[in-house]
Amino acid sequence: MNYETLKMGGYGAYVWSSYALTLLALFIMAFAARRASGKELSAAVRRVQINSTNNASSNATNGGTSS
Amino acid sequence: MNWVWFHKLASPPSAYVFALRLRPWLFWISVIMMLWAAYEGLFVVPPDYQQKDAFRIAYVHIPAASLSLMVYSMMAIAAAIGVIWRMKLAHAVAAACALPGAILTALALITGSIWGRPMWGAWWAWDARLTSELILFFLYLGYMTLRASFDDIGRADRASAILAIVGVVNVPIVRYSVVWWNSLHQGQTLSVFGESKMDSSMITPLLVMMLAFLMFFGAALCDGLRAEILRRERNASWLTDLKAK
User: Fold this and answer.
1) By a Cβ cutoff of 8 Å, what residues of chain A touch chain B?
2) What is the CA radius of gyration of chain A?
3) Do A8 and B53 touch (CB under 8 A)?
4) Which of A57, B164, B216, B244, CA to CA, is 20 to 30 A from B51?
5) Where are the domains of chain B?
């Protein structure tokens, strides 16, 4: 790849900036969606853990009173 | 016709697992296709006889612009299905479409502006195509803002669905603005039924890039849909099974 290829007949700044912005936009699109699903998943896992802990402790309490 | 598969897919747990499995395939195949199409578009295809090398911007501008319309149409159809058949997953699909759609519309506007500067001598013109595309961007922003303004997901779904359905009237306006009005923007380059105005050597990388953008959006949609499903199914028992997996 030589300098002339990069210059693109004088349109290099327009062409390369368009491709760079596209790369940035695609990165944001993928990252934002990934981050949102990751955030919701960790919140869901936390809720499930809290619920199972609560269920276990209430079962233990019920078991204790019945005996 | 057997619709069992459709009903199964429409259930949140099945849709979640389906999106989880589909996402890496869509993502990596789209990345490979994009790299190939970008290489072809930048270095292999010959310069245009009028626009010279500036036309290479078409390989990112056209996929972004066409997909921005496609995503909005998909969002409006999903919203309509959600309103008519009260399918929760359809509202989740519509909500997951909004951010990628807005990003693609912004990208189409920005790359179009960059392309317009050397070709028209102006970054922006209040032309029918450009203005209607800008309205499309505001519709996406309006949809997301409206959703965010409600705490209750059900109310957010219904209100934003109405905006998405009403706003779909802008899609044919964007699409046919270059036909209906005298426009600074060039006419239709690709045609499904008629003859395309581009040489076949230039078309193949463009079509591959369009397909790659579509698949990349599909990957982002899978992630967005999973987030929406988890947000709506906060206390569902299937999440416990999911954790066990």
Assistant:
1) 1, 5, 8-12, 14-15, 17-19, 21-22, 25-26, 28-30, 32-34, 36-37, 39-41, 43-45, 47-49, 51-52
2) 28
3) yes
4) B216
5) 12-244
